[in-house]
Amino acid sequence: MFLKKPKTITIPKHLAIILDGNGRWAQARGLSRTQGHQVGIENIRKVALLCQSMGVKALSVYAFSTENWNRPKNEVEYLMTLPSEFEKKFSSDFEKYDIKVMFSGRKSKLTKENLEILDRITSLSKDRQGLILNICFDYGSYTEITEAVQTIATDVKNGIIEPQDITQEMITNHLYTKDLPPLDLLIRTSGELRLSNFLLWQAAYAEFYFTKVHWPAFGKTELLKAFESYTSRNRRFGAIKG
Ligand code: IPE
Ligand code: IPE
Ligand code: MG
Question: C-alpha 49: how far from its chain's center?
Fold first, then answer.
């Protein structure tokens, strides 16, 4: 009997997901957008555990963008309960599986209560050795890069550095993602073919994978398809490789 040779799959070290389509998924089922978001949150937990079991080192998920404030008031109000939902729904599993949680995003618009929750989740999990789950909340690349430029400009003004000391590495090290490995693969669900202000700097040499599947329906089969596609890519980084 011949055994089928198992295919080796390259697992990205740092995977990012634009988890899109909660609303469309819900509307197609006669549910409210909020119900779509609820299933979407639960799916972050599931996909994080899957990624951990498959050997991904860091998973960045786009949970709320700096532009999502422009949605109807009741939807924004619901989305602002995400930090407490994460704490309630994720804490015990993440402790069990040694998952470290961090948040990337602007701090100035969030309520004191939400900032306290985010701080609590982050500091409780800071020494864990498993998957790093980077939840991007009130995140936008324009803001991230602008904040980095402001900090660096202040160092120039104070005479700590000269303008010519500013390097690509220095900018990278001023982004929220400074402690994460370089971005390898970026997945967007739900059929849109755009970045929507997500990880613009970090995605310079990332691979992209787009699927029509809505985020609440995205699971192991889709993740494996994305990894298979990633495995087949020839990442040249501008050089010439076979
Ligand atoms: C993604 O789903 C979640 C957030 C942006 C918060 P959407 O809410 O964007 O769902 P669609 O794109 O309207 O279907
Ligand atoms: C991107 O999705 C933001 C998040 C997934 C949090 P959107 O649904 O907000 O993006 P657009 O409006 O389709 O570009
Ligand atoms: Mg959307």
Answer: 14
Let me know if residue 111 belongs to a domain.
yes
CATH number at residue 176: 3.40.1180.10
Contact 20 CB / ligand 1 (< 6 Å): yes
pTM over the 0.85 mark = yes
Establish whether 138 is a catalytic residue.
Answer: no
Q: Which atom of ligand 2 is nearest to the CA of 64?
A: 6
* 101 part of a folded domain: yes
Sign, Cα dihedral of 208, 90, 34, 66: negative
Q: What is the pLDDT of residues 3-53, one digit of tens each?
A: 555 579 999 999 999 999 999 999 999 999 999 999 999 999 999 999 999
Catalytic annotation on 197?
no
Q: Which residue has the tokens 């100035």?
A: 108
Quote the domain boundaries for residue 119.
14-231
